[in-house]
Design a protein that fits this description.
Largest sheet: none
Number of strands: 0
Distance between the termini: 83 Å
Helix content: over 70%
Number of domains: 1
Order of helices and strands: HHHHHHHHHHHHHHHHH
Structural class: mainly alpha
Length: 430
C-alpha cells in the first residue's frame, strides 16, 4: 500500500510540475516556495529510496533551463556566478562518486540560478506581493504539517526528544525560519486580517523552530531581526511589534513548555558543551586548509567536489561531511572555486550599491533595501553552518535576493533613461 501511495505521489508531482510550467510559464517562479515545501512535507514520510527529492531537483533544473532558453541574459547577469557553476561542473567527472557530486551540483546550480531568474522575471511590487503570499502559504503548510505530525507522531524524531515535525529536520527548517525574517516586507502588502494571520503564523513557526532544537533555524530569525533593528529607521515601532510577538510566545508557553523541556534535556549535552561542536568546526577548517594546501593541484582545483564524506582527514571522522560551505568549496574546487564564489557575492553587492540611490525613499522601498542587506548577510553567515546543497532554503533565499535587485534595477534604469533625456534636452538648449 505504501509503495502504491508513493508511486502515485511521484506521478502527481511530475504532472503538476509539467502543468504548472505550461500554464504559468515564467510566473511559475512566483510559486516556488510552495513547490519546494510541498516536496519537503511529502519527502519526510517517504525518505528511503523514494526518489521524490530527485524528482523535485530535476524538475527545478529543467525549469531553470527553460527560463534560460527564454531569457539568455540570465547566464550573463552575474558572470562570476556563471563561471563558478561552469568550473565546478567540469570538476564533477573527477569525483570518486560522480553520481553524488552531480546530485549536489544540481542543487547548487538551481539555487544560485534563482537569483538571475528572480532579477529578470520578478521586477515589480505586484509580482513581489504574489511571491510574499507564497511564502505565507509556505509558513502555513509548515505549521499545519508540524501540528499534525506532533499530534499523530508522524515523521522523524531527529534528536530522540519525543516530538516529530514530519520531514522538517536539520536544514529543511531554514525556509520556514526565512519566512519570519521576511515579515517586514510581507506584512505591508497584506490586508488587515491577513496581517494578523501572518503574525500568528509567524509565532507558531517560531515555536516549532524552538521545539526542533536546531540552533541555526532559531538563529536565522533572531540574527535577522538584530540586523533589521540595526538598519531600521523606525526602531520604536520595531520594539513595539517585537514586544507583542514576545507576549504571544509567553502566552502560549504553558502549551509547549513540557515538550520544550523534554527536547532541551535530550540535547542538553550539546547545549552544555557548545565548544565541542565549535571545536569540530575549527578542526575541520584547519584540516581542510592543510590538506588542500599540501599540493599545487589541490590548491587550484581541490580534491572531491561535493563528495567530502570520508574523503578528508584520512576518513578518521567516518562519514561526517564537511559542514562549513567555504571549506566544502575549497576542498572540492580549490582556491579557484572559492575565489569565484566570493566574486559572485561581490557582483551582487556592487550592483546593489550601484542601484540603491535610484530607489524611491518611500517607507516600503526603504524596507526592501534593508531586507536585501539582511538576506545577503544571512546567506554569508549561515554558510558557516553549511547548507549550500539545501535547495528549499537557498532557492527561496536567492530568488528573493534576485527579485529585490531586479526591482532596484528597474528604478535605476528609469532614472538613467530620464537623466539621458534631460542631458539631450540641455545639449539642444546650449
Amino acid at each position: 500500500m505504501g509503495n502504491i501511495v508513493l508511486i502515485s505521489l511521484q506521478i502527481i508531482a511530475v504532472f503538476v510540475s509539467i502543468y504548472g510550467v505550461i500554464k504559468l510559464k515564467t510566473k511559475a517562479l512566483l510559486f516556488l516556495p510552495i513547490y519546494v515545501i510541498l516536496f519537503d512535507v511529502i519527502y519526510g514520510f517517504y525518505q528511503a529510496g523514494s526518489g521524490l527529492g530527485t524528482i523535485r531537483n530535476l524538475s527545478l533544473f529543467i525549469f531553470i533551463v527553460f527560463l534560460i532558453i527564454i531569457k539568455k541574459d540570465i547566464l550573463s547577469h552575474n558572470k562570476w556566478m556563471t563561471l563558478f557553476l561552469l568550473y565546478i561542473l567540469l570538476l564533477v567527472p573527477l569525483s570518486s562518486d560522480m553520481e553524488n557530486s552531480a546530485v549536489d551540483y544540481i542543487c547548487v546550480f538551481v539555487s544560485l540560478m534563482c537569483l538571475p531568474a528572480g532579477f529578470y522575471f520578478i521586477r515589480n511590487v505586484k509580482d513581489l506581493r504574489i511571491l510574499n503570499s507564497s511564502m505565507l502559504v509556505l509558513a502555513i503548510i509548515f505549521v499545519l504539517n508540524s501540528l499534525l505530525s506532533s499530534v499523530f507522531n508522524l515523521g522523524i524524531d531527529y534528536y530522540g526528544g519525543g516530538i516529530k515535525l514530519g520531514g522538517f529536520v536539520a536544514s529543511k527548517l531554514f525556509s520556514p525560519a526565512l519566512y519570519i525574517v521576511l515579515l517586514p516586507i510581507i506584512i505591508p502588502l497584506l490586508g488587515k486580517r491577513m496581517r494578523i494571520l501572518a503574525i500568528i503564523i509567524a509565532v507558531f513557526v517560531f515555536i516549532f523552530l524552538l521545539l526542533s532544537m536546531r540552533r541555526t533555524s532559531v538563529f536565522i530569525p533572531v540574527f535577522g531581526y538584530m540586523l533589521y533593528f540595526l538598519f531600521s529607521r523606525r526602531k520604536v515601532h520595531f520594539i513595539a511589534i517585537s514586544a507583542i510577538f514576545v507576549v504571544m510566545l509567553l502566552a502560549l508557553f504553558p502549551f509547549y513548555q513540557k515538550v520544550l523541556e523534554l527536547q532541551f534535556q535530550t540535547r542538553r549535552e550539546t547545549f552544555d558543551n557548545p565548544s565541542l561542536e565549535n571545536e569540530y568546526r575549527y578542526k575541520e577548517t584547519v584540516i581542510i586548509y592543510k590538506e588542500v594546501f599540501a599540493s599545487t593541484k589541490s590548491i587550484l582545483i581541490g580534491k572531491e567536489i561535493f563528495n567530502s564524506s570520508g574523503n578528508y582527514y584520512k576518513g578518521r571522522w567516518g562519514d561526517r561531511p564537511i559542514h562549513i560551505d567555504y571549506n566544502l568549496i575549497l576542498h572540492g574546487a580549490g582556491m579557484i572555486g572559492l575565489i569565484l564564489y566570493f566574486l559572485t557575492f561581490y557582483d551582487i553587492i556592487s550592483k546593489y550599491f550601484r542601484y540603491q540611490n535610484a530607489v524611491p525613499e518611500e517607507d516600503y522601498f526603504y524596507e526592501l533595501k534593508n531586507m536585501f542587506k539582511i538576506l545577503v548577510i544571512l546567506c554569508l553567515i549561515v554558510s558557516l553552518n553549511g547548507g549550500i546543497t539545501q535547495i528549499s532554503y537557498r532557492a527561496v533565499l536567492f530568488l528573493y535576493i534576485g527579485s529585490l535587485l531586479g526591482i532596484f534595477h528597474k528604478y535605476f534604469d528609469n532614472k538613467s533613461a530620464l537623466d539621458a533625456e534631460n542631458f539631450m534636452l540641455n545639449q539642444k538648449n546650449i
